[in-house]
Amino acid sequence: MVLFNYITNKVTHYELSPGTNDNIVQGNYFNPLVGYPLYSIFNYPSAKLDNLGNPRGYLNGQVSEDYTSILNSTNPSNLAYNGSATPLYFGSIINNFSYRQFSLSVGIGYKLDYYFRRTSLNYTSLFGGNFNQADFTKRWQNPGDENHTYVPSMIYPADPTRDEFYTYSNSLVDRADNIRLQDLKFSYSLNRQSIRNLPFKTLQFYVYANNLAILWRANHEGLDPDSPYASPATKSVSFGLNASF
After folding, report:
1. What is the secondary structure of 70-83 as a DSSP string?
2. Rounded distance between C-alpha atoms, residue 26 and residue 59, angstroms
3. How crowded is residue 1: how many other Cβ atoms within 10 Å of its Cβ?
4. Mind listing the pLDDT tens digit for each residue in 92-150?
5. String of b and e for 168-200 (b: at least 16 CB within 10 Å)?
6. 3-state DSSP call for residue 224?
7. Which of 177, 187, 204, 210 could form an SS bridge with 242, CB 3.0 to 4.6 Å?
8. Is the CB of residue 68 less than 8 Å from the CB of residue 161?
9. pLDDT at 229 over 80
10. Entry pTM
């Protein structure tokens, strides 16, 4: 059995001004901009790090390190639109196999055409005592590193606007498309045809497993796009039996 869904939406009218571009990119995926999906991901376009490892963006078409002006700009054309933060295509494929008294059901789920923002190094947070910092080893450390890393150099004291720009830059946006082995059920059934003195009409033993694995993901960081800021959904296995009289 194949289940296929497609959903799309677009904001056609909104009375309030979105304010600064920083309000838009930080909108917790709720960005009511006319002409775009309600749940969208926008980013600050970024250029290559400079020769000191500072991130660089664009302000009115020019490369800039004026992070305060970039964040406080009220011109949405200084932003780039990635796409929807919710999947446009989603569904599942359920396969059922049977052989004599054995049955196997396999559920594969898919979500396609959407984006997520991953976490990375934030020096303001680091110096504040949060040592759980992704990408610390990938940071710019020596001249020439700007040719193979997008993670800014460490400066002290930290510049919150610099960190803010990097956090919401295009460097940290990935496609969230994924295909999962969602669940699996294996069962063995007995009835009075197989066991004449069986006290039940049917008796089924089964094992059920859920949230088993991601079979494919579009991002190359090995992240679960549905829980990029927390632990992935817990795998579970249960055993049971069904009896009918």
Report:
1. HHH---GGGSEEEE
2. 18
3. 8
4. 999 999 998 999 999 999 999 999 999 999 999 999 988 888 899 999 999 999 999 99
5. bbbbbbbbbbbbbbbbbbebebbeeeeeeeeee
6. coil
7. 204
8. yes
9. no
10. 0.86
pLDDT greater at residue 131 or residue 167: 167
User: Residues for the chain: how many in total?
Assistant: 245
The reply to whether omega before 157 is within 30° of 0 (cis) is yes
Tell me the C-alpha distance between 219 and 240, whole Å. 37
SS3 186: strand
Residue 182, CA distances (Å) to 76, 212, 213 in order? 39, 6, 7
Q: Quote the tokens at residue 143.
A: 């001249």
pLDDT band of residue 245 (cuts 50, 70, 90) is confident
pLDDT at 29: 52
Collect all residues with Cβ–Cβ distance below 8 Å to 80 and sequence separation of at least 6: 42, 43, 44, 45, 170
Confidence at 27, pLDDT banded by 50, 70, 90: confident
